[in-house]
Amino acid sequence: AQSVTQPDIHITVSEGASLELRCNYSYGATPYLFWYVQSPGQGLQLLLKYFSGDTLVQGIKGFEAEFKRSQSSFNLRKPSVHWSDAAEYFCAVGLNYGGSQGNLIFGKGTKLSVKP
Amino acid sequence: DAGVTQSPTHLIKTRGQQVTLRCSPKSGHDTVSWYQQALGQGPQFIFQYYEEEERQRGNFPDRFSGHQFPNYSSELNVNALLLGDSALYLCASRQTGIGSYNSPLHFGNGTRLTVT
């Protein structure tokens, strides 16, 4: 069955430090991969997506993610974290129905706290 | 350009009652999906509507039903509410069709349902 694992429930980093959030997926076909961010009481905002092509994708707010098929991973990175990045981050796999997007399967999320 | 809008933002119901949640998709989007997000969890797919028909369904009981209207807006109905139905209900929309296979989901801010 398809699944997404985010091994880190909670991460704390200092402002200005680099960040890497881990995501591993289980899916038999070529996945569509996404990272979303959720601030308290808010919906989900798309940070970046991978459908095909270049395995290093750039997103909004200075985030990037790298798709590694051999490791079934899609880790999110940011070189310098800002206090406003404190939020919950969700990795998701989009099911591939013959090239058409199916529903998303989400991980349980990683809560990011930023120390001043 | 209005994004995905949901109403109401908060709702309190009693066990056994019925509830209707509403969603207006982002302009230009024709496919609407509903997700349930329990506290501390990632969103879980309920179902997807396109051309006024349910196209995909997640592992939710028949108490959960929906509808899509000709203007693409959608409703989620839950009958015989249980305490475990307390959650944030997220509506998401995307554009479907030729050339839009990589159109990502856009989420609303959700409806917080509390069942007492």
Low-confidence parts of chain B lasting 5 or more residues at pLDDT below 50?
Answer: none
Q: Residue share in helices of chain B?
A: under 10%
Shape of chain A: globular
**Main beta sheet of chain B: strand number and arrangement?**
7 strands, mixed
Overall residue-averaged pLDDT value of chain B: 93
Mean pLDDT of chain A: 92
- Rough shape of chain B? globular
CA-atom Rg of chain A in angstroms: 14 Å
How is the quaternary structure best described? Answer: heterodimer
Which chains share the greatest interface? A-B, 25 and 26 residues
SS summary, helix count of chain A: 0
Low-confidence stretches of chain A: none
Derived from helix and strand composition plus strand pairing, the structural class of chain B reads mainly beta
Short description:
The complex is a heterodimer of chains A (116) and B (116). With 116 residues, chain A is an all-beta fold.
Notes on the structure:
- The complex is a heterodimer of chains A (116) and B (116).
- Chain A is mainly beta and 116 residues long.
- Chain A is built from no helices and twelve strands.
- Chain A has strands at residues 3-5, 10-14, 19-21, 24-26, 32-38, 44-50, 56-58, 64-68, 73-78, 87-97, 100-106, 110-115.
- In chain A, the strands form three sheets. In chain A, strands 2, 5, 6, 10, 11 and 12 form a six-stranded mixed β-sheet that branches.
- In chain A, a hairpin with a 4-residue loop joins β8 (64-68) and β9 (73-78).
- Chain A starts with a strand and ends with a strand.
- The mean pLDDT of chain A is 92.
- With 116 residues, chain B is an all-beta fold.
- Helices cover 0% and strands 49% of the residues of chain B.
- Chain B contains no helices and eleven strands.
- Chain B has strands spanning 5-7, 10-13, 19-24, 31-37, 44-50, 53-57, 64-68, 74-78, 87-94, 106-107, 111-115.
- In chain B, a hairpin with a 2-residue loop joins β5 and β6.
- Classes of the chains: A mainly beta (116), B mainly beta (116).
- The A-B interface holds A 4, 32, 34, 36, 41-46, 49, 51, 90, 92, 99-109 and B 4, 33, 35, 40-45, 48, 56, 58, 90, 92, 94, 96, 101-110.
